[in-house]
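Page 37, top half.
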Amino acid sequence: MAAGLAVLWFVAEPAATWAGGWTQTWNLYHYVVGVRFFGELGYDDLYVATLEVDQRHDDAFRQADVVRDLRTYEKGRRAVVIGDYDVDAALSPERQEELDTVVRALRESDPKASWRDMFRDRGYNGTPAYTAVASVVARALPVEHATTRWLSTTLDPLMILVGLAAVGWAFGTETTAWVVLLLAVFPGTNWRWFGGFLQYDWLAALMIAAAGVKRGKPELAGIALAWATASRLFPAALLVSLLIPDLRPGGDRAFARRLVLAFGVALLLFVGVGCLTPRGPGAWLEFVPRILHHSEQHVLGDQRIGWRHFALWTTPDDLREAVLHARAIPIWAGVALGLGAWGAAVWRRGREEALQLGWVVVFLVTVSSRYYWAGAALLPTAGLPRGRWLAVGFATTAVAHAWARSLGADKHGAYLGVDLAIALLLVVWTLSTVVTPDTDDDR
């Protein structure tokens, strides 16, 4: 009942709006245009190519006077960022026309979209594996046409439904209801479930992985975790956490070997798929330094979740980098202490809970966009009865966010409230796991 009410309250409006034809222009521009033109533009030239092509046609973006340089991540005057970039050297006349057609279709489909802000974002940063797969889908469902544009946005809801079906198959009705409840109430994601392009493939994969673990199917879990990792990287932390219970004395080493073998073979396959983009194997060589730089800059942004971002607290934008360096020792000491507690906790638990305890590592080591933490809606799959209070604890993120906003907090401040709620939940969960014995219910 509670899950149903939460879905109606938090999800009904965005679902109805999407059903009426609405799509997320911001998302489609970065992820559809990003993958369709990845061969020529890579990770660095999406914005400058778009602006140059537009200037030759409609000049609709003439007011985009400040844009982000995707090579340095610094914002600058448009003319300075574009510099001596030669769009003719990058794109043939036919591809320039295609780019203009795609962007114009997106612009006309959502006249209210803020393109000035869009060009100040951080570009397209998908892995080559994700890019190779997504580019096939993007070409099959071109966003230039209203019908196929909308159809391309049905994939995320469908994948989530498949994932929930897997959770239901493995864990039953109550746990699935808790997961649905958390997916609905987690702040900042209810409008993201709809209208976007292939944003939640990794979440469906994590749901299937959890189901595979519960059902004793290591190959299924390994393949699903391999795709989630190839697509978004951070799920590798969940794999490490999952392996620990079977490495302790009395653990099922055969399960661990089968899991690692399936994961390794599948990951190699997905890395190979990533070599099939027009940029070839070199796409991975471009991606690694790109994502490292992106991650460093990501910490300093707004609406992020993670220990290092939380450590900035209310620091103003222009001081965050300096403060982060000044607090480096206590920040990384906190990471070390947290990982020690996590290791002690995961050593004592069964596989299902160990998999979800991987979110402790994600919080400590990474700083991610808020929507990735929708994956923590799977905390109830850690096992009942503990899963119930984990669900209640995670639901407090919605309360923290609403409370912060009611006090007039900006987006950065509101998500610090979410950071705090998640940090408290993970601390209580980890410490309680260390001091309490394992139980059959949690295995």
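Page 37, bottom half:
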Amino acid sequence: MLAAVFALLNFHRDRYFADHLTAALEFMCFTIFYVTLAWPLVLVIIHLTLRLAGSEFSIWSSEWIPLSPGVIALATYFVVRMERTLYNQKWIWAVLKGVAVVL
């Protein structure tokens, strides 16, 4: 499904659907890795640092508050970099397409 979105946003005769499928698989692998491993590790490190500093602030007041903005930012960054490197888009188009894909 995501490969079809990439194909529609980046339609060009020189690209095969396999290129878009590969890009979609890379995006999904990146998202799964960062959502399940890297981003929660960063949040735990921030939480432990705040507790060691004696702060009463808790980033865990709601499970969606710390998770959502980070995941959206990382996914958007990946799509923008992919648009720049794989599809050779200009920055403005890469950012617009990145926001469109993630949202």
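Margin note: The first helix runs from residue 2 to 9.
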